[in-house]
Write a structure and sequence with these properties.
The chain is α+β, with helices and mostly antiparallel strands. 48% of the residues lie in helices and 15% in strands. It has seven helices and two strands. The protein has a two-stranded antiparallel sheet with strand order 1-2. The protein is elongated, with a radius of gyration of 26 Å. The model has no long low-confidence stretch (mean pLDDT 82). Residues 129-148 are annotated as: Disordered. This is ORF I.
């Protein structure tokens, strides 16, 4: 929760909503509570509009009617929520400071030694080690080279 509120402080949520014109009148709707109702309502699997509205009403200072809630579900709100997701992804993605370290790598080798369990019909031809089911090791490797 603290990570989310640090990433999306109330002032940021309100300012960005104002920039996009999500709220026409600064009256009843509390944008931070509205955003968190969608985030936590979705996390709690209250994935109906009525569930989101109940979640909002349980945290906001003033409740909102079903009609008032539904009329706020606009393309502008969708754009706003999309912007918030992009902002969050940008913030938690690998920071640019790591790019210089990663650029030093020229080759990356990926190796896998998966053991495939053999069907019990093959147990006569292939004995198992210990008391496990017989298996065949399938080694694979792949090398990726950076373009020079």
């Amino acid at each position: 929760m603290r990570r989310l509120t640090t990433l999306f402080p109330s002032e940021f949520l309100e300012d960005h909503a104002e920039e996009l014109g999500v709220v026409e009148r600064d009256r009843k709707l509390q944008i931070p509570a509205f955003v968190w109702a969608f985030v936590f309502g979705f996390a709690q699997e209250q994935r109906t509009l009525a569930g989101f509205r109940r979640c909002y009403n349980s945290t906001a200072d003033e409740t909102i009617s079903p009609g008032g809630f539904y009329q706020r579900l606009t393309p502008t709100l969708a754009e706003y929520l999309r912007d918030l997701v992009e902002h969050g992804l940008d913030e938690v993605a690998v920071p640019n400071a790591v790019d210089a370290d990663i650029d030093r790598f020229r080759d990356v080798m990926i190796a896998d030694g998966t053991v495939l369990r053999l069907h019990e019909f093959l147990s006569d031809q292939f004995e198992a080690r210990h008391e496990e089911q017989a298996g065949a090791k399938s080694p694979a490797s792949q090398c990726h080279r950076a373009d020079d």
